[in-house]
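ARCHIVE CARD
Drawer: 12
Card no.: 0347
Subject: one protein chain, sequence and derived structure
Cross-reference: see card 0346
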Amino acid sequence: MARFKFLLAFLALLVCGGGVAGAYFYWKKFAQPEIVVNRHISGKGGGTLERPDLGKRHFDAAIALLKEGELVSARDRLLYLMQYFPESATYDEARRIVGEVNMDLLLSKIPMPGKVEHKVRRGEALVTIASRNQTTIDYIMRANGKTSEFIFPDEPLTVYPLNFRVEISLAKGTVTVFDGDALFKEYRIVDRNLPPDIKAPVATTVSERVAWHGDQPVNFTHPSYMNSAKWIRTGKIGLFIRQADPGPDGGESRPFGVMIPNEDLEELFTILRVGSKVDLVK
C-alpha cells in the first residue's frame, strides 16, 4: 500500500513538472514581450548591449508623412516622439523639423485654428488691421505675399493672432518660441553680450521692434525696409535680440543683446509683436 502511494505521488510530481515546463515554454514562445536589442561590438571578443531607439520609427513615419504633404500629421507625430521618447537620437532633428513645419503652416494658406481671412474695408491701413487682429504688419505682408504697403478695398488678407512667448536660455544657448506651453520654434544663439547687471531669471516683454537703414530708423513703407538691419528691444535695459552681424547699418560695435542668424531674426521680427512675453533663464 505504501509503495502504491509513493507511485501516485511520483506521477503527480511528473504531471506538475510537465505543467510548469509547458507554461514556461508558452511564456517564452508567445507571451514574453518582444525585446529588440542591437549589439555594438567594442574591443576584442566582446560587446555591449544598447537599448533600442524606440522613437526612430515615429521619426521615420513623420518623414514619410512630410513627403506626402501631410504637414499637420507629421508635426503631431514628431511632437509625440519628443514627449515620450526624449532619449531618442532623433530628438534634436525632430525638434528642428517641428519648428520649420510650424512656420510653414503659419505663413501658408493652410487652415489652422485662429487663422482667418480679413476683407479690407475702405479707409483701412495695414497698421490698423494688424492692431485689431493682434498680429504684425510683417506677418500680413509675408503670409499674403505682399511686397508693398498698398492694400485695396475688398482685398482678402490672411491674419493670425500672434500670442507667442519667448524663452532665452543662456545655458542652452537658444531662443525658443512657445505657443502657450507648446514648442513653436527654436533658434540658436551665436553670440551674446549682456550688461553685467542682467542676471537670470528676468521676466519682461517686447517693448519695441526696430528696423534701421543707414543712420535712421525706417518703417515698412521705406523701399529698403526688407533689407534693413532689425532688432527687438525688451523692457529690460540691455536685453535685445539682434542679428548675428548687424553690418554697417547697425551703427554699433559689439552691441548689447543676444545675437541669432539674420534669417532667424527676420522670422522672429515677423511673429513677435510689442507686448510679447520674454523670459531670460539660466
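Annotation on reverse: The chain has a mean pLDDT of 85. Residues 168 and 175 are 5 Å apart (CA to CA).
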